[in-house]
């Protein structure tokens, strides 16, 4: 219980260790998460997504300052799928932490897992709970723009901010990954570049022809200045923070916040069931050598995956009474 | 058994019905797939991926002709994740079928599932088995370019062809989705456009700086002409078919084909285990109303997903003896 109190009090060392255990998928992380869960569900979770090179990290840093100037506390997660071509999580953390290092109202952490994409998705959900339990008002989740993940962020975020940049073929990319459907707020970053008007126009056209949303919310488009011009950039970040808060108010007023909260719960119970039911069976098959035997049989076409999986199910699942 | 003989003989109606059952996730599809599996593992499976608008479909049609002129039979799957913004599977099928409709050596089908991305991944693997059992020499799998899926195609394909187009920001996109790592052959489509040389140069530079592959295979870059100029386009498709065959020979000679076959089997047994172990539990939780009860408890923070999932595991999984 002491640990939970420390987390609720925002103790950085305790939280950092817990997140590290989460990344390493240690069982003790789960026992802490069980105790944390009742203290969650209060933060406004914001997903920040877009292509690499769209300037999301700088934008996130400045957006944090905008929220801080409204006296809101902020937790931030930078999600970094481990790849031989990236691996920049640690460096990125250092740079980010530096800027807000002396502000106790800000907690920033990168999240990476060495395992499957599914493992990362679960870690993100769990890490959000931790920051939520810390009492952060705002939780900002920055994801690197790989298609699937961009779409999955909607499972965790109440408000999804999509960052686009002129002249990067973003118009096409936006439609491509289904981003049009998930964006609640658009940001045109580096809006002093050629092509910003064109991108703005294309976005408006797409919003015009998109099927009207049930909710009646039309995603606003925020044009962000050049980060090297702090004055104009800061003003656009204040604007962005305001649009994000307006979206949250809209969610509360239309009761769509409840829908999003319920969707998040559904995703989480599904992930937890996978971890509690499928993963122990896989672990047992691997450690007993049964998995290797199956792979060998399949390679030589001596059996088929469907029959083998049914055999495994009979071995591990209890007999269920017939459904009436 | 009669059905299996029909499939092996390439009976289009039987195969079409089976694929439809697969898409609808009917249990009878699985019983047929069990009988089919021993007759699989002979085809050369080629993944064809790239952004929407890269001209993959036209290219696939012409590539089919190139393989046919070498007397190879071809099965093709166009993977179409169902989305409110696409839904063009049926129309696409009609257009594609028309061209090769009278050629018994070609079988073309779109694949869509209404369920999750996971469901589609499984359906693709299973549909490949069906075309394989039909005795097709080449199986071409065209995927719409959403990040995650592009990367997953490598689980099923022996050779991955990545189609790029000048001037679409493909250079950035290519790095983004991890495509650089999975491509065995690059195609620059619409290579008569401005920017083809630039794209070609960027690709070569990226290949130069990428960590040398274990296998010693450097992905060749094929420049495809304009589809409206049939002569040059046909020549480039012959070139592409030849590069694809060269890659297959390389896989055989370096014994990396075995690695790819084993990876495919590993993915398939994992998917089959999920279908046999996790999905029946989920179905039971939903039909019994237990899922709704859990969601309600979680929404009111009366329990946490980890504890609830462990309870479910105790209810459904047999007690396992302690590991020694």
CATH topology of the largest domain in chain A: Rossmann fold
Series of H and E elements of chain A: HHHEHEHEHEHEHHEHEHHHH
Structural class of chain A: alpha/beta
- Tally of domains of chain A: 2
- Main beta-sheet strand count, sense and barrel state of chain A: 7 strands, parallel
User: What fraction of the residues of chain A are assigned to beta strands by DSSP?
Assistant: 5-15%
**Strand count of chain A:** 7
Summarize the structure.
Chain A is α/β, with parallel strands linked by helices. Chain A has helices at residues 2-8, 12-23, 27-36, 56-68, 89-100, 117-133, 147-152, 170-176, 179-182, 196-209, 230-253, 256-288, 290-299, 305-316; strands spanning 44-50, 74-79, 106-111, 138-143, 159-164, 185-188, 221-223.
Q: Would you mind describing this structure in some detail?
A:
The first copy, chain A, has 324 residues and is α/β, with parallel strands linked by helices. The first copy, chain A, contains 14 helices and seven strands. The first copy, chain A, has helices at residues 2-8, 12-23, 27-36, 56-68, 89-100, 117-133, 147-152, 170-176, 179-182, 196-209, 230-253, 256-288, 290-299, 305-316, and strands spanning 44-50, 74-79, 106-111, 138-143, 159-164, 185-188, 221-223. Chain A has a seven-stranded parallel β-sheet with strand order 3-2-4-1-5-6-7, sandwiched between helices. The first copy, chain A, is globular. The model of chain A is unreliable at 82-91 and 170-174 (pLDDT under 50).
């Amino acid at each position: 219980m002491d640990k939970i109190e420390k987390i609720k009090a925002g103790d950085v060392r305790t939280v950092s260790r817990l997140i590290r255990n989460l990344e390493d998928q240690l069982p003790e992380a789960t026992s802490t998460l069980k105790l944390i869960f009742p203290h969650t569900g209060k933060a406004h979770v914001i997903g920040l997504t877009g292509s690499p090179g769209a300037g999301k990290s700088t934008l996130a840093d400045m957006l944090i300052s905008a929220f801080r100037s409204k006296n809101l506390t902020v937790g931030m997660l930078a999600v970094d799928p481990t790849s031989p071509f990236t691996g920049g999580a640690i460096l990125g953390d250092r740079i980010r932490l530096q800027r807000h290092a002396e502000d106790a109202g800000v907690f920033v952490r990168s999240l990476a897992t060495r395992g499957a994409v599914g493992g990362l998705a679960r870690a993100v959900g769990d890490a959000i709970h931790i920051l939520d339990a810390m009492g952060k008002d705002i939780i900002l989740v920055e994801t690197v723009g790989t298609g699937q993940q961009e779409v999955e962020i909607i499972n965790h975020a109440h408000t999804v901010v999509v960052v686009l940049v002129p002249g990067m073929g973003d118009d096409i990319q936006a439609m491509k990954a289904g981003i049009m459907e998930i964006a609640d707020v658009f940001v045109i970053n580096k809006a002093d570049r050629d092509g910003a008007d064109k991108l703005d126009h294309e976005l408006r056209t797409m919003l015009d022809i998109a099927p009207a949303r049930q909710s009646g919310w039309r995603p606003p488009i925020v044009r962000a200045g050049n980060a090297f011009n702090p004055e104009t950039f800061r003003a656009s970040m204040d604007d962005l923070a305001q649009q994000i808060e307006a979206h949250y108010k809209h969610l509360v007023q239309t009761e769509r916040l409840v829908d999003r909260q319920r969707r998040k719960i559904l995703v989480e119970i599904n992930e937890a069931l996978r971890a509690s039911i499928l993963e122990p069976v896989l672990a047992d098959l691997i450690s007993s050598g049964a998995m290797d035997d199956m792979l060998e049989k399949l390679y030589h076409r001596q059996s088929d995956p469907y029959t083998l999986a049914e055999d495994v199910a009979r071995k591990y699942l209890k007999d269920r009474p017939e459904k009436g």
